[in-house]
Amino acid sequence: MQPGFRFALPQASRRDVLRAAAATGLIVGFQLPGRGAKLAVAAPADGVFRPNAFVRIAPDNSVTVLIKHLEMGQGTYTGLSTLVAEELDADWAQMRAEHAPADPLLYNNLMWGPAQGTGGSSSVANSFEQLRKAGAAARAMLVQAAAEKWGVPAAQVGVSKGIVSAGDRKATFGELAEAAATVTPPKDPPLKDPKSFTLVGQRLPRLDSVEKTTGKAVFAMDFTLPGALVAVVERPPVFGAKVKAFDATEAKKVPGVVDVVQIPRGVAVLATGFWAAKRGREALDVTWDQSGAEVRDSGTLLEIYRALGKTPGLPAWKDGDADGALAGAAKVVRAEYDFPYLAHTPMEPLNCVAKLAPDGSVDIWAGDQFQTGDQGNAAKLLGIKPDQVRIHTLYAGGSFGRRANPESDYIVEAVSIAKAIGGKAPVKLIWTREDDVTGGRYRPMYHHVMAAGLDAQGKLVAWKHRIVGQSILIGTPFEGMMVKGGIDATSVEGAANLPYAVPNVLVDVHNAQVGVPVLWWRSVGSTHNGFATEVFIDELAHAAGKDPYAFRRELLAKHPRHLAVLDLAAEKAGWGKPLPAGRARGIAVHESFNSVVAQVAEVSMQGGRLRVERVVCAVDCGLAVNPDVVRAQMEGGIGFGLGAALGEAITLAQGRVEQSNFHDYTPLRIDRMPDVEVHIVPSANPPTGVGEPGVPPIAPAVSNALFSLTGKRVRSLPFATQGVEV
Questions:
Q1: Residues 714 and 568 both lie in one domain
Q2: Are residues 330 and 447 in the same domain?
Q3: CATH number for the domain that contains residue 310
């Protein structure tokens, strides 16, 4: 999901705010930072202080932050809680976090309008000021409560590490909670000068680490309800096929199988446990109607893409006369790059629990990434209102974009099954790893055609970039917001905003028509555009007889953030210094989600096998709220991107996905993970994304290093299919 995505934001009436507050239990002392009107306040019966929709302070002195963004391993619990704790002047030991209820008014993603969801590396970036204000408001109310209790001016009351004090009088937040709940929330609480931050910018222990390492954390896969039936679904063997007929006779003979029902996406088997459901599915006899299915091979599709690549596409960026400049260039360099479909394969496969209520409403428990979309799709299926769909967000074991999709596929499947059995029992839907790998929603396959011209002095004078691939957004509810003139913003990001100074540029795109379901994948368009642009720039540097690092520096004079990370990565990697025999370096720099990342990869060949020995990463992500989380996300992104570069690919044979599990769809193994150093550029600017920007530079940096080492230029991914043993 991208930063440019927005819904039209309606004006919230007083009635709307009161309704939403009541629906989520945030009635006392509620104020939505920046938008809410003042409400009458009274002491809560439970003594819990709820100054706004995001903060809850209990008599036991715990401070709980309600996290509106899904925690799927990227650190939102810690990052967002840090912002509240900083302005509240809390002690980190008293901080807690939990997922907020699903409510598009109270907990909307500020970059998307009235829609709650997580994506586009936006969690901390879009909540930075909002969560600081939530903490500041709570602090002001605690101070006012103490001032009134002690009979002193509020200006004489201080707060430090969770203790409110005035002279020799002291009180904890918990001791003041009940009184603070009666204080009128401030309209616009002042925020700290960043120079006085004591928690932001520090390495703080993650709030979810203890639960996760001790096994106490409840992921969606861990959750069930009494009497719940486990469901698995037999889906079409090729995309676009439909159930023609099925025979469940043998499936129903399997011990533990309770029911077999048809749903829009296939046939569901329900049982008292997972293994019974799986065995029941294996015993099903389903006949499929494949008349409208996608039955082409990957190779056939690629040939179609290559044919399209020879014709003009829709212009996404045109500056000057690229064709004319190419015709007059002293040297023209051309290259083509190919990228396969990629699966997301989060370690926790898709799953959720759905329970229909007698009044027709439904409760859903899931590691939910797009609450508002899922509410709307589930409501449409059941013929109810979205606010009758209650989503309870749990921890997710990764996602990389998969859990947020326009059709809410796994959510709708679970609700469809619950509806099909008449709501007689809760339904726990589980996708197996094979379901996940073969079930669609892939990073699209792409073909790139590139040409550039150099003058007699080796200066870049022309750049032409053609992209061929499926649009992620055309045909979805997001088309009206992120597709302009047929240009899907996710197809061209990282290409249509090329930072290099070139006087004549043309970037165009073809939207290929293929029946394979596609979806955003960690760093979206930058996953392929970053590789194509950074490997091609490297090719141009060599064609110009220039050092790849120096060549980039010349072209980035007007982009100080790019220069800063490029210089930092090169310096820390020892660019230009001798390496041991059999090793070489490659460099790449890319901007995505408003963050700029440069990486230097150091590679070797051991027994004819490529090994990435070391990666030095420099990142400018604005203010690093928690540097340790930033480093972890860069490291994780490097591992994720490297796995895709070395060996991952989804291929089709007569429309059928040929891969099924980690034995033939091979992510990076731990023994292949390189040593990684992460260096953060100091910044006072607001935070930008960190969850995804570490992915795009790694593949081109490795490819460029491989060329430096062997003279072999890899232009297509993964490396394993290009004659490189990995």
A1: yes
A2: yes
A3: 3.30.365.10
Contacts with 430 (C-beta within 8 Å, 6 or more apart), sequence order: 221, 230, 231, 232, 274, 277, 349, 351
Residues 310, 409: Cα–Cα separation, whole Å: 36
- Domain boundary among the residues 213, 230, 250 is at 213
Residue range(s) defining the domain that contains residue 167: 14-213
Question: 532-581: per-residue pLDDT in tens?
Answer: 999 999 999 999 999 999 999 999 999 999 999 999 999 999 999 999 99
3-class DSSP assignment, residue 50: strand
Instruction: Indicate if 203 and 244 belong to the same structural domain.
Output: no
Whether 423 and 507 map to the same domain: the answer is no
Which residues does residue 511 pair with via DSSP β-bridges, in sequence order? 469
For the chain, residues with pLDDT lower than 70 are 1-42
57 and 137 belong to one structural domain: yes
Q: DSSP letter at 101?
A: P
Q: What is the pLDDT of residues 405-435, one digit of tens each?
A: 999 999 999 999 999 999 999 999 999 999 9
Query: DSSP labels for 338-350?
Result: EE-BB----SS-S
pLDDT 10s digits, 98-125: 999 999 999 999 998 899 999 999 999 9
Residue 538 lies in a domain: yes
Confidence at residue 113, expressed as pLDDT on a 0 to 100 scale: 84
Cβ–Cβ under 8 Å, residues 84 and 54: yes
Q: One-letter amino acid identity for 547?
A: D
Task: Give the pLDDT confidence of 306-330 residue by residue, as tens digits.
Answer: 999 999 999 999 999 999 999 999 9
Copy the structure tokens of residue 443.
């990073």
Distance CA 304, CA 327 (A): 27
For 206-239, the DSSP string reads -TTHHHHHHT---BGGG---TTPEEEEEE--SST
Question: Residue 101, Cβ neighbours under 10 Å: how many?
Answer: 21
